[in-house]
Amino acid sequence: xxxxxxxxxxxxxxxxxxxxxxxxxxxxxxxxxxxxxxxxxxxxxxxxxxxxxxxxxxxxxxxxxxxxxxxxxxxxxxxxxxxxxxxxxxxxxxxxxxxxxxxxxxxxxxxxxxxxxxxxxxxxxxxxxxxxxxxxxxxxxxxxxxxxxxxxxxxxxxxxxxxxxxxxxxxxxxxxxxxxxxxxxxxxxxxxxxxxxxxxxxxxxxxxxxxxxxxxxxxxxxxxxxxxxxxxxx
Length: 234
Known about the structure:
mainly beta; YmcC-like fold; twelve-stranded antiparallel β-barrel; two-stranded antiparallel sheet; 1 helix; globular; disordered N terminus; disordered C terminus
């Protein structure tokens, strides 16, 4: 008979999906509220799914309320088992839609100081890839800072990721890759802060938005009885 090593009294097995431990959670019903440095407020929330160029993606809505520049759009995301995050494109409710093929590698895990990565992507204006815009984007990322970051919702250890876009087309790309407005003086670079199991706590658009509140469903776990644990050693 095998001996049973010392274990803690409470034992659980992870049975949740691949987003557990993600720096960009996409669980259904998740939501985040932000306050801007120019008086605006914004909300991000997970709505559902959308097929984009044959891939199943998660739809995240971004709505900003502001007296000067309100904004409403959705963008399309996916992850893999390594925790990498991919951005497939966006649809703004003012009519602009851009879809990326291949999807842009938004977060390349694991994050570490000065880590860099790049995606070259062709841009389309439809989910099926029938209508190219004529733009090919080279998108570069760099982990530009790490450390404790304080926002209205709290203080966490996180990673700042700096993003830059260079367009080979004739139109200047004056939005973030996720479709939000960008200040002209910030183009083509902007920086967001990410925290494990929280997501984006600071987002740079034409305002800097900081996390104020959030609602994230708990990751599913399954309790395991002591009898079950003992049976593993027989």
